[in-house]
Amino acid sequence: MSIIGITGGTGLIGRHLTALLVEKGYKVIIFSRSAGKTGDKNISYTYWDPEKSEIDRAALGNIDCIIQLAGASVAQKRLTAKRKQEVINSRVQSTNFLLTQLKEQAPNCKTIIAASATGFYGPDTPGSIPFTETAPTYNDFLGETCRQWEDATEKANSFMRTVIIRIGIVLGKDGGAFPELAGPLSFGIMPILGSGKQVVSWIDIDDLAGLFLFALENEGISGVYNGVSPNPVTHKQLMYAIAREKGGLSIPAPVPAFALKIALGEMSTEVLKSWG
User: Fold this and answer.
1) DSSP class of residue 183?
2) What distance in Å separates the CA atoms of residue 98 and residue 2, rounded to the nearest whole number?
């Protein structure tokens, strides 16, 4: 039975991916700063803290693949200069530390599958040619963060198979963007952010977990892949689809760009940058 290590495994993606891996017959070791509880013999938790350069080296020695999902949330706090550095460090420094430890302590680990994000790309407009994996990095904070993140991951190419998945807006009922978008609908309000024409590259959480599994099980796969649905929608289309799913009365309530900029600061750029 193969053993899969996951960093950042307690988040939405990690939870769904862990469940899928166990269902498919894998054992999973979740590397986390805090111990988790599980009633499943095929799931275990162990310690790591890249900021302190600490990791369970014995556990590393047992894994056959590592899935790197660790990274501070971009949307959780305002993007001050301090927070920006935290976001970058949580991705780049943790990846650098992880690869050093894998090279030294994990002789059986032959594959790394690492998260990145579609924030790598620039503005997108309805009807434009979709971004492919060969598109250049966009020159803003998220684009530069993703570039540094991927550059760190690609150092693994010298000693193991490396797959990078650029993840879009993840939709799942138990986390990610869906609860945030759907919340106001419970009060009969459907917020439309900015023009509503922003292009949303989305993916269902179960499809994303399946994509990671596919990358794991197909050894011919390496390099960078977009982890999104082939059918992007506008923000307004997405909100109407969520409203239909929720049912009941939903009154469209436009939220102007200036209000978002006041509320979200620089993060509003990411929310609004794709409007046409």
Assistant:
1) G
2) 20
Q: By the 8 A CB rule, do 212 and 203 touch?
A: no
Per residue in 196-205, pLDDT (tens digit) is: 888 889 999 9
Cβ proximity of 63 and 29 under 8 Å:
yes
Contact status, residue 211 vs residue 195, Cβ threshold 8 Å: no
Q: How far apart are CA 133 and CA 225, in angstroms?
A: 6
pLDDT digits (tens, 9 = 90+) for 31-72: 998 766 676 889 999 999 999 999 999 999 999 999 999 998
From residue 247, alpha-carbon distances to 181, 239, 242 in Å are 14, 12, 9
Quickly tell me which residue has 């899969």 as its tokens: 4
Closest Cα partner for 199 from 128, 120, 117, 115? 128
Sequential DSSP letters for 127-175: TSPPP-TTSPPPSSHHHHHHHHHHHHHGGGGGTSEEEEEEE-EEEETTE
As a dihedral over the C-alpha atoms of residue 218, residue 166, residue 156, residue 17, rounded to 10 degrees, the angle is -60
Neighbouring CB atoms inside 10 A of 184's CB total 15
Q: How many CB atoms lie within 10 A of CB 74?
A: 19
The values of phi and psi at residue 243, to 5°, are: -60, -40
